[in-house]
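Predict the 3D structure for this chain.
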Amino acid sequence: MRLSPTYLLFKDLITGLLITLKTFFKRPVTVRYPHEKVQVFPSFRGRHAMVVDPETGKPRCVACLKCSVVCPSRCITIEYEVDEKTGERRLKEYILEALRCVYCGYCEEVCPVGAIVLTEWFEYSGRCREDLVFNLEKLVQNWKEHVAKWDKEVYENKYWVLKGVPLKLKPAPRRAGLAVKIKEVKVDG
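Done. Predicted structure below.
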């Protein structure tokens, strides 16, 4: 049986109006931001931060360049110097362009020492492009702001320990654990 185009158009119109009528009486899903805060999902990746070693007070980065190599948007630039006596690399500058970043999290997954993290902080903006180019000092400041709101004594990023990966396949630092002690435990006695 062949239906006329007028009938099909009328049927689609009525179906659309019924959907609109049903939706009209439901609660709206709109969040009135910033008066109402949104719930951040556990897998959210937000503002970048450079983890600071609590014992030395220096950034954890060892200038291995893995993060800049794996970055698909090429938003990470690292400058380092090599110590002539020991041959180890020392981080001079770490520049991350947040406007170019796609927030994939590859940088924090590949880092052998857990130096770079994507925090749950999503409320940040800038008036010009330079405000969203994070140098080493700004990344360390981001870490300090993130840790100040952290309520636990130890920080362990959810991407440092990937579920389903056997322990023997993880690099040596990840086997030992990358947790960062944030607050001193006070013992009464």
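Residues 185-189 have pLDDT under 50 and may be disordered.
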